[in-house]
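pasting for the record
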Amino acid sequence: MLKGIDSNPIIVGAYVDRDGGVCPMLAAHRNGGRTSLASFARAWDRYTGAKRPRLATRRELRTLRSLLEARLSGDALTDLGSIAEAAAQIRSERAAIAEREALAGDSAAPATPLPPDESLIRVRRRPETGERHRAHELRDRLHWSWMRPARRYEEYRDLLAAAEEQLAEQRSAALSRPAVRPAE
């Protein structure tokens, strides 16, 4: 299959397409692989989210290649264990992180960095900007945002044109007002 994905345009959502693209299983078959796993085709299309035939993205091909190479090299892709064990491990890691954060928050000394461990879950904190989220205050105010969200490009284009027209009218009205001079 590795030779096949190198020598053929790979598609998702179909077996073949009009432009010569083939699914990974057909590419493997054309390069000497004699398998017929329909479950692979279903899993591939489910992974890619294919609704209709299209070319596979570079990310999808990189993922397929890395999984195939890992399988050929004999690396264990997953540790065969129960879900309960995995859940217990995740809960203990989260508890350890929460404990470290609590200790770091209580002490005045700077927190020591966590040791590099791939099994820990890293959480990124957003930098504090000083701004506060005001949507709950403004929810009941009519027209509190400058433009409502649009679902389609045409609708967005029309809304933007109306906003630009309104801005132009406000500017022309401001220019047409006589300037008030201060009393001398």
